[in-house]
Amino acid sequence: MRESALYETFARQPLAFERGEGSWIETTDGTRYLDFAAGIAVNSLGHAHPHLVAALTEQAGKLWHVSNLYEIPGQRRLGERLAANTFADKVFFTNSGAEALECAIKTARRYHFVNGAPERYRIITFEGAFHGRTLATIAAGGQAKYLEGFGPKVEGFDQVPFDDMDAVAKAIGAETAAILVEPLQGEGGIRTLPNASLRRLRELCDRHGLLLILDEVQSGVGRTGKLFAHEWAEIEPDLMAVAKGIGGGFPMGACLATDEAAKGMTPGTHGTTFGGNPLAMAVGNAVLDVVLEEGFLDEIARKGLLFKQGLAAVADAFPDVIEGIRGEGLMLGLKCKAPNSTVQQALREERLLAVPAGDNVLRLLPPLTVSDEEIREAVARIHNAAAAVRATEKADA
Predict the structure, then answer these.
(1) 20 to 30 A from 287, CA-CA: which of 83, 112, 120, 185?
(2) Which SS3 state, helix, strand or coil, does residue 352 take?
(3) In CATH, what is the architecture of 63-291?
(4) Longest CA span, the chain
């Protein structure tokens, strides 16, 4: 077999998919899998959702790209809808979550610059965070495995232990511009920042004149049962990065901001060629059509509880394989006792897809449209996988 022309940066599973429908996905040889990976929380409405397909194909027959040299009506509409349903007044559209974070970081620094404090550029972040793969976002995440070999780390990020509010307070100095945090860490192992801690961060920002930046790339757009996870804490950020689920599978992201936070982002200070293109905007608006329907978010919370209860029963039955269950809504994690790679392989043999994460966790990120029957089927497959892992470990002992 000829060597691939692709960069060897992904440890891909030996699966190639051809088509999908809802929570199900099919390989090129016709094998069906229950997809509880959802493209790493991207396929928020599942595969081939009719409303998204219609929106994309209709727009594809009209206009794909014009650039931001011109007005894009779909972009204006989506921006207004996001502002109407969140804390935000302004929106900047991007192609990815990393770009949304870059915009948020630049916006925070620029805010202090135009307020006469250019020395305030440093941002406090948290251990275990994942904010993207650009040079700035790997510096913000601070994980050595992502920083190694890429030269000096981008300056301006101060890391503190996860959920250590005393460490946050001590880290604030004359050069601090903002605090950046994921309300619910995904890559870090489905670790939830308590609501009280989010409220404490808001208080610290208000007291010291800092901006609060939330990374809701994975936890947003309904994933936890609220439109955005921070709403459970009843606080509002100054800036927020969004991506993944907002495009329902089409690459797009957005940086949301208050008028005050965004006041320094004047013409020429930031830009994008592809961000906010007509195709992405058509799909993003279609996603909101569904997610903002009355009762949709309540159903996510209900289904999340059903799923969590089923998973807890599996963990109780196989404590030697699964230590516990983490997360909120349909952003859940299996804290594994056995290596998470072993559990993932067992799930794959049960034709169930999951996503590995840090702290020996497996993420379960089904489409928000998943049915109760599919949740019960997933729990049964996870039960079978745990039994298989136990049997294998006993045989190897």
Answers:
(1) 185
(2) strand
(3) 3-Layer(aba) Sandwich (3.40)
(4) 67
